[in-house]
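hi support,

uploading two proteins for the ticket. first:
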Amino acid sequence: MNFFVIGVNHRTAPVEIRERFAISEAKLPDALRQLTEMPGVEEGMIVSTCNRVEIIARGSNGSCDLKGFMRKYYGFEPDQFQKYLFEHREKAAVHHLFRVASSLDSMVVGEPQILGQVKEAYAVARAVGAVQSQLDTLLTRAFAVAKKVRSETAVASSSVSVASVAVELAQKIFGQLNGKAIYLVGAGKMCELAARHLLAHGAEKIYVANRTFERAVALARKFNGEAVPFEKLYDTVEKADIIISSTGAPHAIFRKEHGERFLKVRKNRPMFFIDIAVPRDIDPKLNDLDGIFVYDIDDLQQVVSSHLGDRKREAERAEELVAEEVERFESRLQTLNVVPTIVSLQEHLETVRQAEIDRLRGRLGELSPEQEMAVEALTKGIINKIMHTPITTLKTAAREQESTTVVELVRRLFNLHAEQKADRKKDAVAVGVGEEKDGSNTSEG
């Protein structure tokens, strides 16, 4: 399994490091094209969220220069961040991806957003042709495993989310939320979820500002709120008590001088900023101002950690399930590797059988229908008996480390090296060992 993963996440790196690696949605297609141009990279995908930036790839000949991609794309030497980087390869990479998709590696275990984020990253990678064959199979299986975890365990029940944590923190600051105004800076899913939770707990007025005004209007309409042109952001933010920001801007959009101005207009009434953007939208120096409270994504992690104990047992069961699925995937993939040889052997012996029947007809003349059926049954029976042992041996060896040696031996014995290799997906169907699907669309190849 030539799969590789490298990246940073909320477990390995603080937000000020993660934001150095973040790739915006608009820049993701170009980053993927550069990734697949790197030596040894056959396929690739990039997941960039507020909690993680991970590069997943399938390499050739056991190598994959992902640090080289980082060096070229980011313009800095990745080794200077070595203590924050994690790397996985082969089976460990598969295990990691299954855990991420199943929300077992999330800041909030069981939260549903990460699966959607991985699927979005997968869709972008497929759209630019960066995911085509084996990585497509891996991602499809990861989605099926995530679905199985959610349906067979209670790891997602009563899940704590960034949205619910926002409510908890806001209640600690304001006591109660009745009559409080919310300002969403950005119109993404995370902002929308947080707003829903806050409104459900008593908040009333909502404002939405987004660089694309039409998206602000659409989101504001859902809450009977007010859309604000982005250029009027600094003139209107002081109306709100709670500001949730997630814009994808490359630098902070709220700085200390903005906070000083807001407090002056509000006559020092407190403001609560929730920064769920990476890179961060809010300069941490705003926290130095009396009356302004700023929480970034790492601060939220500390709050949610106290809620994880209730689901520990279910998380352990989910981990066991993921480990089982990794073994099954590895077994399937190894079996798939011997399929071209099995199909080549079937085609080779069928060619021999047909040639011998044609030669027999030349000697015996025209055969009756009964004779034709007898010859077909006899020769097919002989071929099936000849194929049984090598095919059984190949399928058994596929699950062992000696698979490459056995495949090579069978190809030599039957002189299959000269045979044209069939397409792998067609081969998988021919011998009935293809990858299971969970209903997701997958690319051909």
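and the second one:
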Amino acid sequence: MAKNSAIEWTHHTFNPWWGCTKVSPGCKNCYAEAFARRVGRDIWGTRAERRFFGESHWREPHKWNSEAVTEGVRRRVFCASMADVFENRPELTPLRERLWGLIAETPALDWLLLTKRPERVLKSVPWGDKWPANVWAGVTAENQRWALRRVPLLLELPAAVRFLSCEPLLGSLDLSAWLIGTPRVDWVIAGGESGHKARPMNPEWARQLRNQCLAASVPFHFKQWGHWRPDDAAAAPMRRRVAIEQPDGRTVTLVRLSKSLAGRDLDGRTWDELPEPRGA
């Protein structure tokens, strides 16, 4: 959990528990698993126990809600950065039920529920076809195969905002059919992978998503390059480089840098667009 999260597209993060099981290619180099191992927690996989938290942890969102009310603003809460709220484990059901109550008690917070398991959402939430105005539903779509599996299920959810996290972006994505009409995807987040084993992201994949969002007037957020970005003369010559072939036959060179040095500008600007909050 973190107030003033370092994740660029949220204000805070809240985890009802830590731990998960990998389900798709985007999970391969999971940053949350790596972080948990660094702090001595073996909580990944079907046989591993999850990490749970006490009362002070669960009181924190009430403080954030009070601060938001006092300041007259809304705050976004990413739930969960170290887990998947909709993981299918019996011992998690009571915590999910507690989370639904917490969401109801914090109406000045917009809760961003991001999952790789959209098939489990409707059977897990208590809201039927009338969801709270402060719940945003999102799915991860790391490539076209997983977008085809997850986005149609996302569009079945009557959430105030529906969003996609295309991070780590592992392939070309055509989202255009889901960015128009009603229901539609209201927000797209994209970014490259970070970490020791980060896979390079073709810059054209990010540009394609940005252009699709611009054409449909859908907010676009470019979170990061990760550890690979387009090469330029400023990068030291001893840095590792890879060549990526483009669809038109051109080759673009990527250089491996730290996440902070790689930055998050795309074609000379940052993309921090957000959807309009609809919470009451």
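thanks. also noticed: The chain has a mean pLDDT of 95.
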